[in-house]
Amino acid sequence: MSEIPAPRAAVTALPPYVPGRPPTPRPGVTTYKLSSNENPYPPLPGVVEAAAAAVARMNRYPDMACTDLYAALADRLEVPTENLAAGTGSVAVLYHLLQAWCQDGDDVVFAWRSFEAYPIAVTVTGATPVKVPVTDDGRHDLDAMMAAITDRTRVVVLCTPNNPTGPAITHTEVADFCARVPDHVLVVVDEAYREFVRSPDPVDGMALHRAFPRVVVLRTFAKAYGLAGFRVGYAVAHPEVAAAVRACALPFGVSSVAQAAAIASLDAEAALLERVEELVAERTRMLAGLREQGWTVPDAQGNFVWLGVGDRTADLAAAAEAAGVVVRPFAGEGIRVSIGEPEATTRFLEVAARN
């Protein structure tokens, strides 16, 4: 049998993406999935109806220009539609942006540990991921990230709040950072969890976008809006940047159903805010409970908390699963526990108290 041609070296070097694993059903035990940063609540009012209406037209291609979605976002964010670029989740938009800007010999700087998809998205372009360690309390080290920028750097990614460690960067810090970044570098501000931030001086992505033409803001409908299963994210960027991102996007990538659901979700803001507040309250309870037990937990500004337990990671994850709660382990580093139902918070706190 003849050998098949080899893929690009960059592809064979890709690190694996590890998704949050669902719990295994167990007779007589209610199980909880806290391994993915999902919204545990059902769709917002009107979303199922809008999605169902779009399903009835599934024989037609979706609107590739996302006309109605861009119009709704432009109205909500007070930006021109030409500043928008949508994709199948904000991570897909990041892929498209890196494809537009990066190639062999380029660098992309980001904090680490941070979102697991970043090194994959960078490596697939042939560029080199430059991982700058977070501080001991899980925060971006912006001075170290600035020092890591060279003539080879094309993009810097800031994840705020940082997934999986939890802390958010302040607006003042990011604005100062953007003002110092060299002209040849794009700054991507990933705000996937922005709705959950309750810290002083939260990042205002739209203000950064208006102040710095090289800033690209990434947002998603997956988390607070509860559309993780439909995959809709978008970038707000300078028109030339947004156009380049759209040029690299998969044709018809955002389905008609996803577009309709996203628009309906924007219309349900009152219900959204109520659910977000409930999740923030559960996050506060989780954080306080863990600290009262003596755990060291970084500031949590997303819909998750981080326990940097190092060599104890596998044991703590196994103990949680034995109690019916699946969390997301990062081997040898720690576990991320998503915020879910109140019963799930109680169950995990019971596990933590025993371990």
Q: What key attributes describe this structure?
A:
355 residues, alpha/beta, four-stranded mixed β-sheet
Folded structure, characterized:
This protein has 355 residues and is an alpha/beta fold. The chain is 38% helix and 16% strand. It has helices at residues 9-12, 47-55, 67-77, 90-101, 117-123, 142-148, 171-180, 205-211, 239-248, 256-266, 269-292, 313-322, 342-354; strands at 32-34, 84-87, 107-112, 128-133, 153-159, 186-190, 215-220, 233-236, 304-307, 325-330, 334-338. The strands form two sheets. A seven-stranded mixed β-sheet has the order 2-8-7-6-5-3-4, sandwiched between helices. A four-stranded mixed β-sheet has the order 1-10-11-9. The termini are far apart. The mean pLDDT is 95.
